[in-house]
Specification:
This protein is an alpha/beta fold. Helices cover about 50% and strands about 15% of the residues. The chain binds adenosine monophosphate.
Length: about 210
């Protein structure tokens, strides 16, 4: 399975992607998660990305495309779930070129749809695990022990870009840069739309049943 999950921040790409990985064994390539790991590692890439991420802006295309290319080459002929990439039409075009060069086919691009007020409330209480990336919510999906991951016992954290002002900026950036990516895949005929204002299990099941 090679798919792209597209949707605004908070739509549930990470949660649904994790369910799809459990069922298909495909590798999740989450550009945001890869950047956050680089930031924690203190690498040059991480330092550069941090400046953009903190402000809810996109990391420049050249940097992002180079990083994702490396990951896609590493996965080779295995399946992948792209979460957060491509986020601009330039990135989508670069991905098409990469897949062509590597002789790989994309099964589909899935646009996850959720009303904007739901997205904002999901992001406002979001908590992530510092180690395994599991996602919780302070109201809708509390961990069993406050501040501790159920899966790996590591501390939970609030992302630096999940603050109200940054959330608004990320949504603006989404409408300006990423909504056109949905149109791009609609034009190439690879697009499927899925209602993501439901339990993540239901969303993952529908994605798996798409033909
Ligand atoms: P995410 O975890 O997908 O919400 O991404 C967090 C942040 O990482 C975004 O707000 C951007 O600053 C940056 N980022 C993630 N993916 C991309 C991408 N494909 N292109 C540019 N910036 C990205």
């Amino acid at each position: 399975m090679r798919i792209i999950l597209i949707g605004p921040p908070g739509v549930g790409k990470g949660t649904v992607g994790a369910l799809l990985r459990e069922r298909t064994n495909a590798t999740i390539l989450s550009s945001g998660e890869i950047f956050r790991r680089e930031i924690v590692a203190g690498s040059e890439l991480g330092k550069l990305a941090d400046e953009y991420i903190r402000h809810g802006e996109l990391v420049p295309n050249r940097v992002t495309i180079g990083m994702m290319r490396k990951c896609i080459v590493e996965v080779g002929s295995g399946g992948f779930i792209l979460d957060g990439f491509p986020r601009t039409v330039k990135q989508a075009e670069a991905l098409d070129e990469m897949l062509f060069e590597l002789g790989l086919d994309l099964d589909r691009a899935v646009a996850l749809d959720v009303p904007e007020d739901v997205v904002v409330s999901r992001l406002s209480g979001r908590l992530g695990c510092t180690r395994c990336g599991a996602i919780y919510h302070s109201v809708n999906k509390q961990p069993m022990r406050e501040g501790i991951c159920d899966v790996c016992d590591s501390p939970l954290f609030v992302r630096s870009d999940d603050k109200p002002d940054t959330i608004r900026e990320r949504l603006r950036v989404y409408h300006e840069n990423t909504a056109p990516v949905v149109d791009y895949y609609a034009t190439t005929g690879n697009l499927q739309r899925v209602d993501a204002d439901r339990e993540p299990e239901a969303v993952a099941n529908e994605i798996l049943s798409l033909r």
